[in-house]
# Entry
Amino acid sequence: MGLDKVEAYIEDERNRFEVKGVAVAVVQGDEVLLEAGFGMADEENGTAMTADTVLAIGSSTKAFTATALGCLVDDGLLEWDKPVREYIDGFRMHDPVATEHLTVRDMLSHRSGLPRHDMLWYGNDKLTRADVVGRLRYLEPSKSFRAIWQYNNLMYLTGGHLIEVLSGQTWEEAVQSRILDKLGMGTTSFTFDSARASGKLASPYSKIEDEVRLVPHRSLDLAGPAGSINSTVGDLAKWLQCNVNGGGRAGVEVITSPTLRQIHMPTMVMPEGPAMWDETYPGGYGLGWFLENYRGVRVVHHGGNIDGFSALVAFAPKEKIGVAVLANMNATSLPTVAVYRALDELLGLDPLPWGERYKGFLDAMIGGAKEAKDLRKAKAATAPSSHPNADLVGEYAHPGYGPLTVNLAADGESLEAHYNNLDLVLTHRHFDVWDARYEAVGVDLEITFLTASDGSVAGVKVPLEPTVKPIEFERQPDRSLADPKVLAGYQGSYALGPITVTVVLKEDVLYASVAGQSPAELVPHQGTTFKIKDSPATVEFEVDESGVARRAIVQPAGVFDRVADEA
# Structure
């Protein structure tokens, strides 16, 4: 079957969507009908896009994770419907019902009750997957367990960790040995470092403020099972053949047909809303695959979208046809447009104007978002912050999301923030609300500083997950208050009339005591202020240039002056 019309169409749509480069593969049964590249893989160096160019496939990775878990089902090491807590010691969700009953089928079909909470892992190179699984208990669900479909990358990260627990292989090792090696997908890899070593890695681009820009490769290693695979359309053609041919290719079985059918079958109903187009209708979600009725034909597919890359892998099981499209621009509809046009050709249907439809939809969304942002800026008051910028500097932490730090910028006046490995520029909006911009990809966040009853800065709240209340990060003690050399300067006796408070340092912890009472532990707070453990009272030390405290202000008891040391 000739696909010349499809190739010409894809090149036209690439220009319409301002995408630097796109690669496409089309298969039918055991035959590869098309493997081709269009445009540029790296415009700056003049490198053309080809079928052998390596691009990130993003969340199209999820189907590989589901298949690797299916291999463990075939091995008898895993049951789809057995609670995860029976496999992972100490496994716990925020919702006790989910803790008790969550299964692998629940995780892979996005019905855990947990929304995305993506900012926990995005840009995070400090945690392990086991660490993230341990933090699930601190993440608020937005819906009841199994009540509704909610896309969630953390559940796939957990699935990858489960593979290691059950098999002794990392997720990467399992996917490599159980899938990639068997299918001969020799250029597919899991990290940008390994993809770069191939010499075939495409450059990522993004459209930011009406300009298509080169953006950094974003490591997704931590959340690898949810979206870190890099591949070529040549390799993905083999993956498509495995899926349309019942679980194997070229006489090599990857997964049994019954287990693969479980992965491809509807598992969770998708939220139903007005159909965007009459020719498509959602058919639910399987395990790592979306299901769709496309012009009367059952189609199984999954897309991917990360910094600088978009992907779509799709196939019609009954017809045994499949299409893979990879583009080096994020948030573009070109892969969907190209897949639909190829399906129209393969199914013998009159082609529909998918490019025109999706470009109009995309332009309306971008224009609306820009207008809303401009209106927000126009309405922002100029009311001052409750605190000088220097008072906002410090470390804030959440038990699930980890630390967020606020620092003075190089000019010594303006503020910047750091979360995971993301550098954020802070701009005051009004009152205690600041806009935080991640310049690399043009993303905006909002940070609100929280004030305690004593007027000090108690924390920040950031709407990192829009479906739950803003995530609150608690102000952490100044690091200097953990330094024994600093604490030594606070030791001594302080008097208020006949009352004397004695402060001593024991094993790097300060204790204060009054005659006739047990010593009370002083818990570091901020500045030179400590909280008295198990009490609402605080102690603030006034320190001289040598680091020695001269007064202890005890709230609400009074001001205690240092008693001169006896000779």
